[in-house]
Design a protein that fits this description.
alpha/beta; Rossmann fold; 5-stranded parallel β-sheet
């Protein structure tokens, strides 16, 4: 783990894995959350990760509960979000991008051939001084200066 404040950013696919028992990485995500707790590593999420989290989970719920109403889907998403927010010592951090940060994000996108959301996550990590990311997304493997925990 990185040395700076012993924190790890949780990527959206990681928190999705925690919520979907049939997900291929469910067991590994559970193991890592336990390890973070045991090692005193503080998990961090940024609001941006919830965009993909909600979108993907809504798709899972629509498939699993095909007759669910909008209200029922909203309740399921709320329950899942509360489970994530209940992770011990979780810090929800609003990064507060400046104009320069957005322009830097474009450079990160180009340099590492990342999707916009992933580049924003990398820039957020830089702003927050976090070197570790819990993610099953291999795109982060290309980024120098961060440690991908799988």
């Amino acid at each position: 783990m990185g040395a700076f404040n012993n924190r790890v950013l949780l990527d959206s696919n990681f928190i999705i894995s925690l919520q979907v028992t049939r997900h291929q990485f469910f067991t590994r995500a559970q193991e890592l959350i336990y390890k973070f707790k045991e090692d005193g590593v503080q998990p961090v999420v940024i609001p941006l990760v919830f965009d993909e989290f909600w979108y993907i989970l809504k798709g899972y719920f629509k498939t699993d509960f095909s007759g669910a109403t909008k209200d029922e889907l909203a309740k399921m998403l709320t329950r899942s979000t509360k489970k994530v927010l209940a992770i011990e010592r979780l810090l929800v951090s609003d990064v507060g991008y400046k104009e320069k940060d957005l322009l830097d994000t474009l450079k990160i996108m180009s340099k590492y051939d990342l999707r916009p959301r992933d580049a924003m996550i990398v820039k957020s990590m830089q702003i927050l001084g976090i070197k570790d990311i819990a993610s099953f997304d291999s795109d982060f493997d290309r980024v120098k200066g961060i440690n991908v925990i799988k």
